[in-house]
Amino acid sequence: MRQTEWLQETRLMRFEEAYGGWTESRLTQEEAALLLGVCARTFRRYIDRYEEEGLDGLIDKRLSQVSHRRAPVDEVMRLVRDGLGGREAGQIINGNERYDIYVSLAKSFREDQQAIVDLRLQSPTGAWVRLGDVADIAIDSGPPQVRRNDVQRRVVIQANVQGRDMGSVVSDIRQSIEQEVDLPPGYSVDIGGQFEN
């Protein structure tokens, strides 16, 4: 299976899981969107496409164009990662301190959807391709980073304790969660840290 086909298949399976949870009222629209790693507005757009065209409406035809135009998916991802997220270009050494130098697009370009659409990447054949010709570009808000542990999404909340022993703080946290938090199906809370020693 080619990488583009695998990406499509994974995306469709994740959508079916999120959509099923939403239609069966096991997940809110926001929770289903979070499962896909998109904002609620984008999830709503996916639902509209799915209800109009079925799963075919969710197939990103541009992924096949990436291969067809000889612009590998990893090159598209590198352009986005380096241009928007920045790339380490060296270090400045000041005495005992070292500071990384990152190079990225200017902020005005990173926040301009049309400027991102117009980014160019060179294919192995030497042809120049616009990013917008091989990918859907949208500026949406979503989770800043998705972490996983044993294939489950994970969110870490950290805290420091002052003026109290850790055991009693952990006990209070557990009690508050039991009494005040109604966890949706599939969610769990694990508490870890120095108190375990």
Describe it for me?
The protein has 197 residues and is of the alpha+beta class. The chain has a domain at 71-135: 2-Layer Sandwich (Multidrug efflux transporter AcrB TolC docking domain, DN and DC subdomains). It is 47% helix and 14% strand. It is built from nine helices and six strands. It has helices at residues 3-23, 29-36, 40-53, 61-68, 73-85, 107-110, 113-117, 131-134, 166-180; strands at 87-94, 97-103, 120-122, 128-130, 147-149, 152-154. A hairpin with a 2-residue loop joins strand 1 and strand 2 (97-103). It is flat, with a radius of gyration of 22 Å. The chain starts with a helix and ends in a 17-residue tail after the last helix. Residues 1-7 have low confidence and may be disordered.
Summary, kept brief:
The protein is α+β, with helices and mostly antiparallel strands and 197 residues long. Helix content is 47%, strand content 14%. Helix 1 runs antiparallel to helix 2 (29-36) and helix 2 (29-36) packs across helix 3.
Give the tags:
197 residues; two-stranded antiparallel ribbon; single chain; 9 helices; alpha+beta; 47% helix; two-stranded antiparallel sheet
Strand arrangement across the biggest beta sheet: 1-2
Order of helices and strands: HHHHHEEHHEEHEEH
The N- and C-terminal alpha carbons lie at a distance of 47 Å
The CATH topology of the domain at 71-135 corresponds to Multidrug efflux transporter AcrB TolC docking domain, DN and DC subdomains
Largest sheet: 2 strands, antiparallel
